[in-house]
Amino acid sequence: MMDVLRPPTMWLGGRCYRVMNPVTANTNTNYAEEDAYGFEDTVYQDEIECSGEQVDFQVEQLNNGKFQTSFPVANTYISYVIGAKGATKKRIESETYTLIRFPGRGQSGDVVVTGKDMKTTRQARLKIELLVEQARKKQPFTHFLSFPFNKPEIQERFLEFKKEVLEKCGDSRGVDESIFQDPGKLHLTLCVMVLADDRERREALDALAKCPENILKKYVAGEKLRVEMRGIEYMNDDPGEVDVLYGRINALSWSHSLQTIADSLVDEFVRAGVVTKQYERVKLHITLMNTLFRDDKDGVTEVKTGKDRESFCARQILEEFEDYQFGEMEIDEIHLSVRYTTANSGFYSASGKIPVFNEATS
Fold this sequence. Notes:
It is a single chain. This protein is an alpha+beta fold. The chain contains eight helices and 17 strands. It has helices spanning about 35, 75-80, 85-95, 120-135, 150-170, 200-220, 260-270, 315-320, and strands spanning about 10, 15-20, 20-25, 40-45, 50, 60, 65-70, 100, 110-115, 145-150, 185-195, 225-235, 245-255, 285-290, 325-330, 335-340, 350-355. The chain has a four-stranded antiparallel sheet with strand order 6-7-9-8, covered by helices on one side. A hairpin with an 8-residue loop joins strand 8 (about 100) and strand 9 (about 110-115). It starts with 8 loop residues before the first strand and ends in a 7-residue tail after the last strand.
């Protein structure tokens, strides 16, 4: 049961809302079309209020006395909001006494909501944004914010680790070469995001551009961010059924912790409305082995769902390499990385990148 004194919050378009009374619609009605798209038909009623953490969106009054708000929605999500045979659009219009207009098929432009008063116009927009957010969560992420950890000395030690694991632990169930990370793509993921169109990509790049002044100048304070990768850990509770094995990151010197810097960078992207915050803190880790990388029988790497993944037994690996030293390095760049790509450097292609230390952060 929800604690009414501490209602959950949700970030939408860079604004934080308190969700006071979420209810699930009756899927036996004609309103179950969202289920066909793979997400729950959750209706957030009137009890949604701005927490005051961000400036609220604009609703203007027209000359005819009606109220209107317009906002962009990526074409990817328009069909989710319209619903099968327009049922979702009609339902929102009926519930809020509004008129909703979408750009034409294949065209760009804003969604426009027109209502008889301020309250119902706001309600309709929030319902649309919540549906878009539900749909977004079901999409595979396209970009991620990262610290590259692919310095030559780190790569060399990782390859030695891989060689020794295969030699000493290759007989362990599920352990094979295909589940090791590409050494050129070793990285620390800060957050993942779905950037569905050019506008969303520009918003993410704008958020990245603000990080030197808003985050790095405050927390880096002229120090080089020197870290070491030492030791290994696993994600789940059973070392005999592991999907992800990762390297631990330890800070060597600076005034503010890497955890604070990582969390603050993610918060900047959350405020920009391009990231949905899932966890209170960033998990500081470098993926070394992941069963998502496992080859199929034909030797073709494929992305598998959680149900399809074949775990591996990591008990012997943890015993042999618990305190393995992968090396030290300076974190010198932050990348907005593009998933499923490879740049000339061997790392992921970057939509944008910023230096961690320069005159602006000293």
